[in-house]
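Before the break, one more example. Copy the sequence into your notebook; we will annotate it together after we see the structure.
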Amino acid sequence: MRLPTVLRHAVDFALPARCAGCGMPVAEDHRFCETCWSSLRFLGPPWCEGCNVPFAFDRGEGARCAACLRDPPRHAGVRAAVAYGPVARGLALRLKYGGRIAFAETMALRMRRLLPLATDLLVPVPLHRWRIWSRGFNQAALIGDALAKLSGTPHDRTVLIRRRQTAVLRGLGGRERAQAVAGAFAIAAPSRIAGKAVVLVDDVYTSGATAEACTRALMRAGARSVTILCWARVLSETRDD
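Here is what the structure looks like once it is written out:
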């Protein structure tokens, strides 16, 4: 019994836990140093009842932003752990393109507080098979795995599929993004969705085009509701695309 403990201490000494933002040594895995932690903007109420965009002050129960009053969304809200910024962006990029898959759990630990209590099923935003083969994984599915483990909520990796490859959305405007993903998603087995409160899991919410296309497919398959849950949300003042 003592040997594993000794080995663990040796590993901790040789490979200390690192800040998920900058790499400085920290007390435990999935933690941030004081500087990176203080730079993160955690999101929560008060927010729009329709899309969960944060308000600067409490506007009262049921308040909606102008966009939701003009065009109510199909989804039941977009819940994001943090606003998109340098540290949040760094984690997302290193997970997606750098293969730092442990960051999926780092993100899930901060997203769990926003998981709706009535959630029946977690569903990740899917990648096309060609992109999975080139990257080796779907970052949204990894985050979903971590959320499922933390919350005990069922996670279905395969029910929502991307039936055609789409262009890279970075650099496109909102209308172009919507056109690029229109009709790109389908449901493999509607019976696995019907009547369920679904949480759609992703890493970053930008324009909402992909989430909207996924929501449309899920609702057509009979989902009772679809809430989007992500690590970071691009707000109007933080857009860099």
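DSSP finds nine helices and six strands in the chain. The longest strand covers residues 197-205. Try to locate both features in your own notes.
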